[in-house]
Amino acid sequence: MTIGSSPEPFVKTLVRIAATLLSIGVVSVALAAASGRAFPRAELSSVSAYASVPRTSHPRASKHTAPRVATPAPADGPVAADPTPAGEDDSPDLGVVARADLPTQDRDPDAADPDAWVRPMWYPPTSEIEALPMMSAEGPRKGPSVRARSAFIYDLDAGRVLFQKNADDIRPVASITKLVSSLTFMSLQPNLDSQMCVTSAQYPSRNGARSHLSTGDCMQGWDVIGAALVASDNRAAIGLAAAAGTDVGDFVEHMNEVSEELGMESSSWADPSGLEDENLSTARDIAKATVAVASHPLLSMVASAPFWDVVRIGKQPRRLFSTDHMLGRDDVFIEAAKTGYTDTAHYCFTTVLDTPDGRRVVVTLLGADGKQTRWADMNRILAWLKTA
After folding, report:
1. What's the predicted TM-score (pTM) here?
2. What ranges make up the beta strands (E) of the chain?
3. pLDDT per residue as tens digits for the range 300-311
4. Which CATH architecture has domain 2-72+87-106+108-385?
């Protein structure tokens, strides 16, 4: 696995250390620095310390100095499916800690009340996720010119909704589903060093669906999550279930539990990849999932990488590029982002980004008619944020 442009052995060692530390709630932010992308508060050494620093200390508050890799972003639509014959499922037992073994918590049904909401026990102790219940507030309907059918913009520093357009309309969300899949994967506390081998069980349900992986490809857990989040690979997303030591049906049940725990009140999930039209959510709920990914010490590094080198055991590594066009820009810093497309969902995009003046903003766009429409919407939103 290589993230960004970092040396392979160094990155792999740091990822392994971080994965170990994550299980006890402490993560070295040197991991993010090794990915070729500056961590928002790179001088800190733990999640709890990371949570306590005011935004005025943000090293990108006045200028963007993070190393960037301008990479070609392939289309997010369907490509040819893998024709490789089905193989035997020889994935080993990963020895995963079951969700049932985690501490339980009482949950108030009023998730919109910040005082009532309880952080999921599986989530690392970072402060930014505390914004999730406040994101249920109503916001202005007047704002930037947005052509996407649904939109939601939230200022994480100010703690307020800046703009909403049909933000609570329930829609298919395509590959943006993979954000919830990745959070579910981490909630099951997988062993990222363990192998997952691609089998016919991970074959996409829709003809022509995107996958860069072949039946028989074997890789470690972090390469499964990397392929799913960076390249939006569908077989990798489906393979997250096996990499977490469970089957797809149980994994989808966990997805619904995770989204409920995060206060995603109008979401329901049918498969980990987002191919099924029954993966339903809203712009507001997806913004919450995006913040949860951006605030997660490990997932944020993956969801902001311009490329990912998947190390397939016994084969040559394969470099997979991000589908996010925003990563090549110098005027914003992407903390996490995900694209999505199906014929039903249309073109979707969600991100947590830092503006040049240091503001931390989440933007979600669902249901844009054209491939370039979502990027044009983002250009208009970024221009509007300069005065909002």
Report:
1. 0.74
2. 2-3, 150-155, 160-165, 171-172, 195-197, 218-220, 280-281, 307-310, 318-321, 333-342, 346-354, 360-368
3. 999 999 999 999
4. 3-Layer(aba) Sandwich (3.40)
